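step: validate -> pass
step: tokenize input -> pass
step: predict -> running
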Amino acid sequence: MALVGANVPIGKVIIAEMPIYLFAFFRFAIASVALAALISSEPGPRLRQLAPRQWRNLVLMSLIGMVGFTILILEGLKRTSATDAGIITATLPATVALLGVVFFRDRLSRHQIFAIGLAIIGLVFIQATGLDSNGRSAFGNVLVIGAVICEALFVILAKGLSTILKPVRLALGANLVGLVLTLPLALPDLLRFDITEYTPLIIALAVWYALAASVFALLLWYHGLPHVETATAGLFTAALPLTALAVSATFLGETIGATQLFGAALVIAAILQGSGAFRTRSRHD
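step: predict -> pass
step: emit ->
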């Protein structure tokens, strides 16, 4: 999640030079090649051995959690600041908890409900900055919120598949599906693609983004996911906004206004409150 968060401001730099759908296709292509080189030494079930229901979940996981997240976060970053996007993604733990109620019929305690409420109020304050003169857009913030929902669904869908497939095969399967799904969207840009139009820095950042998001982060995520509960995994998504904010301030030189700071404080308070609530619940269980 820390690697994914660091990619938020990096993605903003890349899409200032490269078309979004071309970049999304490039991401999945680079990651698929890298993972294919690693797969021969991994034991366990192969992708072709998946049952139809498991393939459906794999396609949904890639469509929603990888293609959907990538496109929505990048389209959002064209219209809002990386700082706002970083703060909004801090609602991931609360979003995962809410989806746990919907999909797994989890019961939320009063502490968890309070934490979710704080996160929502924090979003309201961040959204209040969405029409100022610094290039921030309320619509861009809404797109980032959509990306958060996609990432939360990714956590839930990946949980089941990570107990069936080993990490490299699961990551490769998700990236291959993403590659196929983004090809029609990227085709117009691919037909007129000329690598000399892009600086070495942009190419290097695009390669790093692909490897960090689709190889390193996925392998770490899939290795850890079978060993923790869904709610616990949701809490660790809080690392995403923390690194997004840090890199936005240092790499892009963005500043955080008073309203944003207050919204961020509420979201961080929600994370801390939710974390304590989950720990309390675990002890009682």
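step: describe -> The chain is about 75% helix and 0% strand.
step: cleanup -> pass
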